[in-house]
Amino acid sequence: MLELAPYAAHPERSRGRRYAEAPPAGRNEFQRDRDRIIHSTAFRRLEYKTQVFVNHEGDLFRTRLTHSLEVAQIGRGIARNLALHEDLVEAITLAHDLGHTPFGHAGQEVLNECMKDYGGFEHNLQSLRVVDELEQKYAAFDGLNLTFETREGILKHCSRENARRLGELGERFLKGHSPSLEAQVANLADEIAYNNHDVDDGLRSGLITLEQLSQVTLFQRYFDQVRTLYPALTGRRLIHETVRRMINAQITDLCTQSRRNIQEAAPCDIDAVRAQAPLIAFSPTMQQEQLELKRFLRDNLYRHYRVNRMSNKAGRILRDLFHAFFDDPGLMPEEFQARAKFDKPRAIADYIAGMTDRYAILEHRRLFAVEYQPSL
Ligand code: MG
I need a surface site. Which of 1, 17, 60, 372 has the fewest CB within 10 A? Predict the structure, then answer.
């Protein structure tokens, strides 16, 4: 590992864990966080959770798991380039989507709507809830007992109301402070990953076309470049050569601009980083192009009628499940029944958010299918 910058997160100066533990032997505190995340149940479930496409729609599309791995890979590259702590970025990126509901954003919206009178549902906050409370693996505490720095990175955004409830971790949202540079990197690595892999998955699915993408500056620039270099190239290779150039351009731009920002602000340590506006950023031009791409994906892919159909069906499944459990919490497994005694809506949201796509579909069938199905 390269020498760590003074403004990076240094594991030996961590603000610590909620429950004191002896320091790890042979690895640093952030590696320990990363290891705990990889061994968690919620992490394994990411394999069967939707990113944009429902898991069973095709074996080649991204799932939350492969998305998280791509975010980690991009994030680590940027961290190393900027002499930030790679293990912390890896831990944050691998954990960032642990709280996602089944069926992607459609699931999040419906669960939030079901929970509107009970504090709402926010996947980002749920990721924190997973690592702080819901994972049950250790004898001495609930959750994974991660370091402050990893938890700070997982909590990307948060309402003022929730921030007040979260104490030390919520403080920055009330004071208008920033998280560590590692957390900022994780956040933008997420954007780079999904914008590019959604172009790839969108083309593969046939929901968007090369012709439509020609209106997107970033795509068209590298598409033209590849065609000039390889005039005979077609199909998947042409797309891959284009998308990999787009990823590279975004990472390079982010590193250059962020290095410049860091040099100008000259933070002496991580607390100086936290006290000012975010320093990890794209150049204004790339920011514009990135926005254009995002808008394109929103209008043409995320709101495609075939995606809408999936979202609509997913919404019905989750709404039905929520109401059935609300009417009778006794339909949930015992662990969640026990939780429901303290806070029924939250226990139901925890149970549903933890489901994979296929588990939610199966659970819906178990509870609502009229036909006799002996195997269920
Ligand atoms: Mg993500």
Answer: 372
